[in-house]
Amino acid sequence: MAEIAPRRLILTLYGLYARDEHNWMSVSSVVRLMGDLGVDSTSVRSSVSRLKRRNVLRSMKSGSAAGYALSDSALEVLREGDVRIFDRRQARESDGFVLVVFSIPESEREKRHTLRTTLSGMGFGTAAPGVWVAPGHLREEVGRTLERRGLSSYVDLFMARHDGFSSLRRQVAGWWDLDSINAEYGEFLARFSDAQTRWKRSEDGTRTAFEIYVPMLTVWRRLPYLDPGLPLELLPEGWNGGRAAGLFSDLDALLRTPAREHALTTIHS
Questions:
Q1: Tens-place pLDDT, residues 220-238
Q2: Residue 224 in contact with residue 123, Cβ under 8 Å?
Q3: In the chain, what is the greatest distance between 2 CA atoms, to the nearest angstrom?
Q4: What's the CATH number for 6-74?
Q5: Are the C-beta atoms of 65 and 57 separated by less than 8 Å?
Q6: Phi, psi dihedrals of residue 58, rounded to the nearest 5°
Q7: pTM of structure
Q8: Exposed, middle or buried: residue 148 (CB in 10 Å: 0-12, 13-18, 19+)?
């Protein structure tokens, strides 16, 4: 299975622990916590530098201690992500769809790439060239995101329902790469199916919880954006999403608190 990029683990650490610690974490705390996850200090510092260049983290001192805080834009993205990750909704067919249609002049073609990347990153599928589609319950989220990124003036939003002539289930299979998404769910199940047993057998419960929980959440964070909660009745047989979501919920309930205990002990030491 693919290794998890250190910058993704760092973002998870900040989302889980720094936000409640005045949105700040010292360099030494980040290095120690990432060390617990098997990442060396050189990789940590390189990844932090990359996150600074992308305006995800910003340098900030607390007294004489050097550290980093999340940027305002990163905080907003994480707040919206909390809903997708921890309060995810499975759409119903009766919710309909939100459609995004856009027109961007050739002189601003870089915005075309930004818009496509934004919509793809939110889990939209493509119904036709220039027509993007997602479950209707995402209407408010997409509106906020497009406004925040300065893209709303190029876009029209429509609420719609499928009214013929082909099978909607067949259409959904064309709008999204369901095989790829299902494979990602399968990889999540394979990677973390024994996590509860590993934790129960461990001698250091809080540290082991941390070592499992942070990578688990980091891997899971992508999945609600690949699959935006498509209606179950439109998904193929053998869909792994339900089992994967159940495993995530079980591990979140079991490991979140002891993992946090280990992290805060390290941060405050």
A1: 999 999 999 999 999 999 9
A2: yes
A3: 67
A4: 1.10.10.10
A5: no
A6: -135, 145
A7: 0.90
A8: middle
